[in-house]
Amino acid sequence: MARYLVQAPRTDFAGEVAGVRFTEGAATVDTANLPALAYFQRAGYLLNPLDEPAEQPTKPTPKARQRAAETEQGDPQ
After folding, report:
1. Nearest to residue 9, comparing CAs of 76, 73, 53, 75?
2. Is the C or the N end of the chain the one with fewer CB within 10 Å?
């Protein structure tokens, strides 16, 4: 099972998004929670693999960053 470091657009974010607890803008999610990983990718969060060498993190578009910041202020649908 692979694990990912998920980084929120706001580095100071602390709270829960898609059932995952963030502290200082980061959380660890494994592939057992594929729906959350898929949501974070769509919403513009950075996903960095922890279990294998990372070539480059995924980079969200400005629109995806805005959506992610708006989501952190409310509950994801």
Report:
1. 73
2. C
| The total number of residues written for the chain in this structure | 77
- What number of other Cβ atoms are within 10 A of residue 72's Cβ? 21
Q: Write the single-letter amino acid at 58.
A: T
What's the pTM value of the predicted model, to 2 decimals?
0.67
**Phi, psi (rounded to 5 degrees) for 36:** -65, -45
In which residue are the tokens 């969060």 written?
45
The mean pLDDT values, 10 residues at a time, for the chain of 77 residues are 94 96 96 94 94 63 75 60
- Indicate the helix (H) or strand (E) that contains 63: helix 62-72
